[in-house]
Amino acid sequence: MATYPWTVGRPLGWGETVSFDDDVPTFPGCRSVFLAGPWEYGQAGSIDTTTESVRVINVVPISDAERTRALSARPEAFFSELLDARGVFAPPAAKG
Fold first, then answer.
1. How confident is the model at residue 44, as a pLDDT?
2. Longest Cα pair distance anywhere in the chain, in angstroms?
3. Which mean pLDDT values do the consecutive 10-residue runs of the chain (96 residues) have?
4. Helix (H) or strand (E) holding 55
5. Which DSSP letter does residue 27 get?
6. Contact between residue 70 and residue 17 where contact means Cβ atoms under 8 Å apart
7. Are 54 and 87 in contact (CB under 8 A)?
């Protein structure tokens, strides 16, 4: 994830999805992440440093099905639906 901006030649931003060859560690079944901005009232969207303001990016592991939805929806709509569907700090429920 740390090398992604240099691999694709641009910085990361809110509303993007990033995919990996393997599962995200501790999130079985998640080979992608959704990059979210603040989603709670009062949550910081950036941090001011002595040089410039740095954007805070929340990295949310998502399943392949969630990735498909993320790529076909507006980022705000997708993330709102995701927040309503499950806790974003836990892996998606396993399909059984």
1. 85
2. 50
3. 83 90 86 89 88 90 94 93 87 68
4. strand 53-55
5. B
6. yes
7. no
DSSP string, 35-49: EE---STT--SEEE-
Q: Which residues, at least 6 apart from 37, have a Cβ–Cβ distance to it below 8 Å? A: 14, 15, 45, 55, 56, 57, 58
Q: Which two tokens stand for residue 47?
A: 């941090």
Q: How far is CA 79 from the centre of its chain?
A: 9
Q: Which of helix, strand or coil describes residue 67?
A: helix
Three-state DSSP at 68 gives helix
The per-residue pLDDT for 64 is 93
| pLDDT score recorded for residue 95 | 62
What residue has token string 């995701």?
Answer: 82
> pTM for the complete prediction?
0.83
CB 96 within 8 A of CB 64: no
